[in-house]
Design goal:
307 residues; 2 domains
Length: 307
């Protein structure tokens, strides 16, 4: 039976104190930070299940103090039961206790963030949204399906270089969420659309924490698009594998058993990684057992995990 989704979890009151979700507070949190961590569904699940979650939090804290959980990610986390599991509530509590602001981000609020920071017309903002959608649609994923199936008048505006001065963000993102299906990548695709639009603002760094390797080619394509059009290469994707490598490199994670435990919280079997070995001259892609991968990292001085 296909999964069902709900916009507001039934037990939202159990964890709302850990989150910023009112529109004015969300926009204020965006404006006041300069490093943006967008957390994907799978990585929230993985890291909340690790007994070494505090080590992960310590590393993330060195990069930023605001975490963005999009509305679609929360819908995925609460599928079927319509309630957030206690392990994820506990993880959000740990993040909050460590000084993180956790922003529940309705994707359409990118419009309000743009208007708050830039002197930009609604039509120009709509045009940015259309360009971002076009870029993400190149890979013929869920966003492409949504654009093809939505009202032709609305999809025409989103595709047009003259989309008009009526704000289109709310209609598009709410329609996209309403048509989410099990197994699609709409949460990740909407995050990428948000980041493309937001990088029009000339400040900040964007980190995308996701173990979904299906979207790696899309992330690279978005990197190239943002570099070409907005003058910087964003977002930087962090997988659990690359997090383990970076935590080890920075001296935050040195115990072999702890490294393996974090890896196994994300990968039940073998792990696929992009890496550069000690004697490699270019990036490689291989499948490892968790123990084998960690031993390579510990024993090869120049071994680097990229994704």
């Amino acid at each position: 039976m296909a999964k069902k989704y709900q916009v507001i979890p039934l037990n939202f009151s159990s964890f709302e104190r850990y989150m910023i979700y009112r529109k004015d507070e969300v926009v204020d949190a965006f404006v006041r930070t300069h490093n943006y961590l967008f957390y994907d569904t799978c990585s929230v699940l993985h890291h909340s299940n690790s007994v070494n979650s505090q080590i992960i939090i310590n590393y993330l804290k060195s990069k930023a103090d605001v975490i963005f959980i999009t509305r679609t990610v929360l819908m995925e986390l609460t599928a079927n039961s319509f309630e957030l599991h206690q392990s994820q509530i506990q993880y959000f509590k740990e993040l909050s206790d460590n000084g993180f602001k956790i922003v529940l981000f309705d994707e359409e609020l990118v419009y309000d963030c743009l208007k708050e920071v830039l002197n930009i017309s609604t039509e120009e903002a709509n045009r940015l949204l259309g360009y971002a959608i076009k870029e993400v649609c190149k890979y013929k994923g869920k966003t492409s399906e949504i654009i093809e199936n939505m009202d032709k008048r609305m999809s025409g505006k989103l595709r047009s270089v003259n989309p008009g001065n009526r704000e289109l963000f709310s209609v598009f993102f709410k329609y996209a969420r309403a048509h989410k299906n099990e197994g699609d990548s709409i949460a990740e695709e909407l995050i990428l659309i948000c980041i493309i639009v937001l990088t029009r603002i000339p400040m900040g760094r964007y980190f995308f924490i996701s173990d979904d390797m299906r979207i790696r080619s899309q992330v690279i394509s978005v990197n190239d698009y943002i570099l070409k059009h907005h003058g910087r290469k964003e977002p930087y994707q962090l997988t659990t594998s690359s997090l383990v490598y970076k935590m080890y490199r920075d001296g935050l994670l040195t115990n072999r058993d702890d490294m393996i435990e974090i890896m196994k919280s994300a990968f039940t079997g073998n792990v696929n990684v992009f890496f550069v070995g000690e004697y490699d001259i270019q990036q490689r892609y291989e499948t490892f057992k968790c123990e084998e991968l960690i031993d390579r990292l510990l024993n090869e001085k120049d071994f680097k995990i990229i994704y």
